[in-house]
Write a structure and sequence with these properties.
By secondary structure, this protein is mainly α. Helices cover about 70% and strands about 0% of the residues.
Length: about 80
């Protein structure tokens, strides 16, 4: 049986596109804008990474960013498994 049918490739492409779009959401920027009414990219290294976020806003907000990033990964994998 051939598992690489056109439907397989459509589902794989949709999963890849959805995972890319989900992964491109930066919760560091979102949390800094909503929680601190600021942009993390205006501080420190200018990067929206977790280290710069932690140094700028502290552990409380950094834990929220970590949790959101983990849920983002779970959402991408769950969507791919569902497709």
């Amino acid at each position: 049986m051939n598992t690489f049918t056109p439907g397989f490739w459509i589902a794989a492409g949709a999963a890849a596109l959805a995972a890319y779009l989900i992964g491109s959401v930066s919760f560091a920027v979102i949390v800094s804008r909503i929680g601190a009414q600021d942009d993390v990219r205006n501080h420190g290294s200018g990067n929206a990474g977790l280290t710069n976020f932690y140094r700028t806003y502290g552990a409380r907000y950094a834990l929220l960013v970590i949790a959101c990033d983990m849920l983002k990964a779970v959402a991408a994998v769950s969507l791919a498994a569902w497709l």
